[in-house]
Amino acid sequence: MTRQPEPEPVVERRPDRQAIVVAGGRASRLGGIDKCALEGNGTSLLERALLAAGPVDTVIVGRGTVTQSATRVRYVDETPRFGGPVAAIAAGLASLDGQPWTLVLAGDLPEVGSAVPLLLAAFGRPRFPAAVDGVVAADGGGRVQPLLGLYRTTALERALHALPAIDGASVRALLSPLVLAAITVPHASCADVDTPDDVRRFGLSLPDGAAGVERVA
User: Fold this and answer.
1) 17-201, what's its fold?
2) Which of 21, 52, 60, 181 has the fewest CB atoms in 10 Å of its CB?
């Protein structure tokens, strides 16, 4: 009897990637605190973003402190300071070595860890379209969170160069020329922390000694 050959194991593709964590906002609705320092269960929002990014070269743009051991991580400032997320992305790309894919993460997403594996899995599907410039997270209602996405690095660079100005530019304007695939993720994964109500909803608090104009009650 002829034996059928054993099927070859399926090897999941993972993009060669780098990561940018956008952590330079003013947090004006939270009294100017370092909201990336907000923590729950002993893990800050910034550390959650780094864990989600994985062991890749990562740039944190803005402020924030990593209390756990973190390798392959560096800090830069956007130009000008508080120039907005597009300025942060530009600063991050300028300080990285140019891996083919760039993971862009907001530093204030409490549930970011449940979304990133879905973005990476979308890349690994067979027949991933070559024309697609990236995959971006969307909640169950179809709302897209552009600061939770995996983008072709060259596409981001082209889009940045096409902008008339980077300071104050909107992420929507940056990404408008790109062909993006929206990937539905758990609803809470796209929710950021902007207000005291958000802080309470996610059970977060500022650790002792964290920088801030006022504490979040």
Assistant:
1) Spore Coat Polysaccharide Biosynthesis Protein SpsA; Chain A (3.90.550)
2) 181
